[in-house]
Amino acid sequence: MTEISASMVKELREKSGAAMMDCKKALVEAEGAFDKAYELLRQKGAASAGKKSNRATSEGLVVGQISEGGKVAALVEVNCETDFVARNEQFAELGKQLSDIAAKNKPASVEALLQSQLNGKSVQEVITETIAKTGENIQVQRVQVFTLGSAHGTAGLYIHTLGGKMGAIIELSTDKAVANADQLTTLARELAMHVVSAKPAYLTREEVPSEMIENEKRIELGKADLVDKKPEMREKIVAGRVDKILAERCLTEQPFVKDPSTTIGKLLAAKGKEWGVELKPVRFALFILGEGLGEAKDEE
Questions:
Q1: Are 157 and 99 in contact (CB under 8 A)?
Q2: Closest by alpha carbon to 288, among 142, 110, 190, 73?
Q3: Is 1 exposed, middle or buried (0-12, 13-18, 19+ CB in 10 A)?
Q4: Rounded to whole angstroms, how far apart are CA atoms 142 and 168?
Q5: Which residues sit opposite 75 in a β-bridge?
Q6: Do the Cβ atoms of 88 and 147 come closer than 8 Å?
Q7: What predicted TM-score, i.e. pTM, was given to this entire model?
Q8: Bridge partner list, 52
Q9: Rounded to an integer, what is the distance from CA 121 to the centroid of its chain?
Q10: Per-residue pLDDT for the chain (300 aa), expressed as one digit of tens each?
C-alpha cells in the first residue's frame, strides 16, 4: 500500500479546495497518483464543493424531527446561498435526512452529525455531493437534540410553515402518565409553536443571569424620563420596568399566543390539575434561520 504523506494531502487540498479527509481518501484510492486523485475529486464533486466552502450561506431551512414516541426531539439548521435552492426538493430532502439522522444518532455537535453515516456514506460526503449538484455552498450550522429524562413526558416540535425559517422544540415532564397521551402531545406542539411566535430567551425567571438583570436596571436608571424623579420613586419605577422585561423574556410568564388571557405557567398548572399530573417545562430550543451563522462565527 502506497504511503500517503501529509504533504501530498496538503498539496492536493491546495489545488482542489476539497476537504482534507476527501483528499486523503482520493490519494489512497489513486494509490498515491496525484493527477488521478485530483480527477477522482472532480468526478465526485468534492473539488468544486471545497472551492465553494467560503461562500456565504444566508438562506436555508430549519428542520426537525420527533422520534421514539415523543422521547427524542431534534432540531437542525442547514444553510445554502440562495432562496431558490432552499426551496428546491433536493435540498428539502437533504434537510429531512439530516433531522432524521440527528433524531436517530443524537449527535452532541455539528461535527458529530457530519460524521454520522447516511446510506453508506458520511453525512459530510452526502452534503459534498449535494453541493456539486446544486452549485451552491451548503453548511450545517446548528443541531440540538433533546433526549427526555422523564418516563412520562413528551417533546413538542413546530416548524414555521412559511418557508421553514424558524423552528422550536420543547420538553415537557410529568410525574405520571397522562390518561389521554394525545392531549399531552398536542399541548407540547402548541407550546413549541408559542416559542416560535413569542421567542422567549429563558425558561423561567430563575434562569435569567444576574448580570442581565443588573444591566437592564442600569439602562432604565439612565433614561431621561427618570432624571427628575426622587430616588425612591426612581427605584420603584425601574423595578417595575425590569419586572416587565423579565416577564416578556421568560417562557412561563409570557401570555399564551393562543389565549393571551393566561400565561404559559398558568396554562401548565391548569392542564396539570385537569389531567391529575404535575406538568413542567424542562427546556426548549429556538432556531431562527441565520442566527446560527453569527454563533458559528463567534465560536471560530
A1: no
A2: 142
A3: exposed
A4: 13
A5: 64, 144
A6: no
A7: 0.77
A8: none
A9: 23
A10: 678 898 888 888 777 767 778 888 889 999 889 888 887 877 666 555 555 555 556 799 999 999 999 999 999 999 998 989 899 899 999 999 999 999 999 999 999 999 999 989 999 999 988 888 888 889 999 999 999 987 899 999 999 977 789 999 999 999 999 999 999 999 999 999 999 999 999 999 999 999 989 988 888 888 888 888 888 898 899 999 999 999 999 999 999 999 999 999 999 999 999 999 999 999 999 999 988 665 544 443
Residue 276's closest CA among 165, 149, 177, 151?
A: 177
Closest C-alpha among 113, 104, 137, 75 to residue 289: 75
- Residue 104 has, within 13 A of its CA and on its CB side, a CA count of 10
Residue 5, phi-psi category: left (phi > 0), alpha (psi -120 to 50), beta (remainder): beta
The three grid cell numbers given for residue 101, joined into one nine-digit string: 439522522
Q: Compute how many other C-beta atoms are within 10 angstroms of the C-beta atom of residue 241.
A: 17
What letters, b where the CB count within 10 A reaches 16 and e where it falls short, cover 254-267? bbbeeeeeebbbeb
Question: What is the distance between the alpha carbons of residues 142 and 39, in angstroms, rounded to a whole number?
Answer: 32
Give dist(CA 118, CA 120) in Å, integer: 5
